[in-house]
Amino acid sequence: MKIGVPKETVDGEHRVALVPEVVGKLSGGENGVEVVVERGAGAGALIPDAQYEEAGARMVDDPAGVFEADVVVKVATPTADEIGRLRSDGVLIGFLAPLTGGEAIGAIAASGATSFAMEAIPRISRAQSMDALSSQANIAGYRAALMGAMEMGRYYPMLMTAAGTIRPATVLVLGAGVAGLQAIATARRLGAVVQGFDVRAAVKEQVESLGAKFLEFDLGGDLEGAGGYARELTPEQQARQQELMAEAIGKVDVVITTAAVPGRRAPVLVTERAVELMKPGSVIIDLAAESGGNCELTEPGQTVVRHDVKILGPLNVPSTMAEHASQLYARNIQSLLGLMISDEGQLSLDFDDEVIAGACITRDGEIVHEGARAAAEAAATTSS
Fold first, then answer.
1. Partners of 286 in the beta sheet?
2. Whole-angstrom Cα distance, residue 36 to residue 34?
3. Cα distances (angstroms) measured from residue 207 to each of 86, 175, 188, 373
4. Alpha-carbon gap, residue 114 to 111, rounded angstroms
5. What is the distance between the terminal CA atoms of the chain, rounded to a whole angstrom?
6. Which pLDDT score is estimated for 229?
């Protein structure tokens, strides 16, 4: 059996799907697994080709030599050219955007390849080691707290000096999922006074365990949805939330937003009115920029100043820490491959396994994931 690792070609993507540590574990022993890596695949994550060779990988110059593998592992959704290289009897694993990338999913199905999306792995205890969304969100939350500290132009911690006392910065983190909790923890370590907000009442204890205050609004009961995500609010709840949120936002120095609803536009939590209430020099880090942004004034991929407030809409934040992001992602991939490779080193897909079945997007020329099928049908309707 052969596993292929291509060089990522999407602009700004510096991660790589497998790192030498994992390559060594997959290709070690007598199970017959061969790992083929395109030269330069790890360069963006500061991993030289020599380390892959030392780990037992075979390096190739032509990406065609990678895509002829039984299993191709990627980070970003494949381009049209890459999809065209897939074997009809091959397997593709990566971030495939099944709920929003309908056109690519349709093309992957047409190729005949069996594909698995890391976003679609069921959020169950047995699959925690495969949860790439969490491993990458952890990095994004950490990075967001640092961005806030760098961009604000004021101290995070309280300082008592001969020249007087500097009060600590106040940070508000909206959304207490993996990214939000890491942002809270990092901002606290930097000395800021931190508040956390989430519509899910269950996360209050987690926020407070990190030394932050949990900001509570009465929006009508617990709003946790399927899979541990926050469910979408009604228009009335959204309006009430925005009103209460604006008042709270006006009192802080840094706002970090992380709220997302899978397959939908990110909810607007920070209105223009809320930005107007913030002090000059305040900062908003919008980690939801890729899905439209939690701030009404966010421009995805840009840093803008509105009402004397700096608003950052960073994209693909985990890729800015490509070395560690790749290490974590590669371990997620390794855990998933552990369910797919037999003791004899052969590909063995058990579709009775809820992880394998849940993560599968395309199979035998069909889109088997319900959400992905709807996205592909919508994309086909739009294009026609």
1. 257
2. 6
3. 44, 10, 11, 36
4. 9
5. 40
6. 53
Strands (E) in 95-181, as ranges, are: 114-117, 159-161, 164-166, 170-174
pTM above 0.85, yes or no: yes
What angle separates helix 132-152 from helix 178-189, to the nearest 10 degrees?
A: 40
pLDDT of residue 262: 86
**Positions marked catalytic:** 123, 128, 131, 134, 229
Task: Beginning with the edge strand found earlier in the chain, give each strand of the sheet holding 360-363 in spatial order.
Answer: 58-60, 34-38, 2-5, 71-73, 91-94, 114-117, 360-363, 366-367
Q: Is 221 left (phi over 0), alpha (psi -120 to 50) or beta?
A: left
Residue 108's nearest CA partner among 375, 332, 337 is 375
Dihedral sign for Cα 365, 366, 372, 376, please. Answer: positive
In this prediction, the residues of the chain whose per-residue pLDDT falls under 70 are 29-30, 219-232, 384
Alpha helices in 17-63 (DSSP H): 20-27, 49-54
**Can you tell me the distance from the alpha carbon of 252 to that of 193, in angstroms, rounded to the nearest whole number?**
9
C-alpha 73/C-alpha 53 separation (Å) is 18
Amino acid identity of residue 223, one-letter, is L
Taking the CB of residue 154, how many other CB atoms lie within 10 A of it?
15
Q: Alpha-carbon distance 257 to 93, whole Å?
A: 29
